[in-house]
Amino acid sequence: MTVPAAPSPAVGRSVSGVPAGVYCALDTVDLDRATTLARLVAPHVTGLKIGLEFFLAHGAAGYRAIADQAERTGLAIFLDLKLHDIPNTVAGALRAVVPLAPRLITLHTSGGPAMMTRAVEDAVNDAEKAGVVRPALIGVTVLTSLDAHDLAAVGQGADPQAQVLRLAGLAQASGLDGVVCSPAEIAAIRAATDPDFALVVPGLRPGGVVAGDQKRVMTPRAAHDLGATVLVVGRAITAAADPAAAAASIAGSLA
Ligand SMILES: O=c1ccn([C@@H]2O[C@H](COP(=O)(O)O)[C@@H](O)[C@H]2O)c(=O)[nH]1
What we know:
Layout: E1 21-25, H1 31-41, E2 47-51, H2 52-73, E3 76-83, H3 87-97, E4 104-108, H4 113-130, E5 136-140, H5 148-153, H6 160-173, E6 178-180, H7 186-192, E7 198-201, H8 220-226, E8 230-233, H9 235-238, H10 243-253
Parallel strand pairs: 1-2, 1-8, 2-3, 3-4, 4-5, 5-6, 6-7, 7-8
Helix pairs in contact: 1-2, 3-4
This protein binds the ligand O=c1ccn([C@@H]2O[C@H](COP(=O)(O)O)[C@@H](O)[C@H]2O)c(=O)[nH]1.
């Protein structure tokens, strides 16, 4: 199939060293599939997201295989490990992965202020020691797969927006560079945080694509217009019959 010419994949405003635009989530345990997807979507996206599925299967060697490819095509790498543990353990995990030089790393804001402030301090030192640019530290607030009913089930009575706002405020006060939120909370966080606070937004479904396990969803265009910095798109691209065409169509929808 012919892939339509893509507009510039750099959309939105880059903040805190986070290049703005669409990042494709390479959620697979298959290294060949990940490298093929990375090649196919490269002309249409700003970055590639490596998450738990790929990293647990292939570790640093797999990361480097994707990062080498990303470097050749000028894409940013987002290492989405969603670290969540005591401060010392998260600091140790960062020490292990900061030398890989991803542009973004995630950790859970519900790990608390002590964990986040320690992460910020240590990431600076880890990056300096490794001679790499410090990654942006991005706090996961309330997963986009959760709704008010799910929050109540785990003892968090707050509605998702109130809980996301609370955690985003905590993340900013702890020195993080931004948060992961759903499209539904972008406007409220933008109003409550510094303009340079990065908003990383999954839960994106172009028209006609099923939500599946995601509960707080919007289209990429709606999230872009609301002010997302990073648009995270996985299955709408990777499960499409033609991933390059799907990525090109999403990039085109933002123009
Ligand atoms: O709250 C969150 C945090 C991270 N994610 C990640 O984004 C992608 C979304 O994949 P889709 O296939 O587009 O649903 C996936 O890698 C998640 O781990 C999220 O969805 N929600």
